[in-house]
Amino acid sequence: MEQTTEAYVKAFTHHNITTIEFFHPQSNSLPGALLQSLAESIEVAGNEIESKVIVLKSSGTKAFCAGASFDELIQITNKEEGLAFFSGFEKVINAMRLCPKLIIARIQGKCVGGGVGLAAAADYAIALDTADIKLSELAVGIGPFVVGPAVERKMGLSAFSTLAIDATCWRSANWAKQHGLFAEVHSNTNELEEAVEKLAATLSTSSPEAMKELKSIFWRGTENWDTLLKERAAISGRLILSEFSKNAIAKFKSK
User: Which of 5, 11, 44, 100 is most exposed by smallest CB count within 10 Å?
Assistant: First the structure.
């Protein structure tokens, strides 16, 4: 069967487990339309009675998520467009935060920028040992402003600042586990699948009310994120207009 080259977000529920899968031909990067679909899918699953737990995954065997779409970033011409684009990440992270269901992230490959944000906003991330991470935003003239609160909450200020400052350095999956981003790291895909399926199956038979209360405790102190992440999106939306950013993105795209 020929693999699709069309970007998508699809969701299905089986045995009380909702799987949300996204795909983009450019290393599972995230343009605005995909971000909107992701946020909507998470919100829908959160409100479905049949759904007890959510598994967030991307398609393929390579990158989990390459972050923001450079094709869209380079087309931004004003602050309003910049705010609108980066608000897509704000909507996804806040949808994950506010979702009453626990979210397991299945991380099969490298995470860059917004991909690190998705892993951090999940309640439990299970990864392959090849799932290196990088916050590359500073290298293109912006910064991990929108995903920053989620990454800092999960990993602490020290690890977040390390990733944000050294924007060209990959950190290993084991480093990410040591600093709290990943809950588990596995050495092959079979082990990864088994771990995700086992945890999801266990949670699918656990008390929905208990899990909802647990999640509200896990996310306590983030009640201002509706406003905070919009403010951060505006910062990125302004900085992406700089000549530095335009030139840096053009260089990345030409490689």
Answer: 5
Q: DSSP secondary-structure letter at 17?
A: E
Number of domains within the chain: 1
Answer yes or no: are the C-beta atoms of 185 and 129 closer than 8 Å. yes
Element (H, E) at 33: helix 32-47
Mean pLDDT for the chain overall: 96
Burial 12-32 (b: 16+ CB within 10 A, else e): ebeebbbbbbbbbeebbbbbb
Q: Is residue 92 part of a domain?
A: yes
Give the Cβ contact number of residue 207 at 10 Å: 11
Could you tell me if residue 211 is inside a domain?
no
pLDDT of residue 2: 40
Identify whether 243 is part of a domain.
Answer: no
pLDDT at 88 over 80: yes
pLDDT, mean of residues 60-70? 95
CA nearest neighbour of 138 among 245, 28, 255, 232 = 245
What is the crossing angle of helices 79-98 and 225-239, to 10°?
A: 150
Tokens of 38: 């992701």
Output the domain CATH number for residue 99: 3.90.226.10
pLDDT 10s digits, 141-162 = 999 999 999 999 999 999 999 9
177 belongs to a structural domain: yes
Concatenating the DSSP letter of every residue in 122-149 gives: SSEEEEETT--EE--GGGGTS-STTTHH
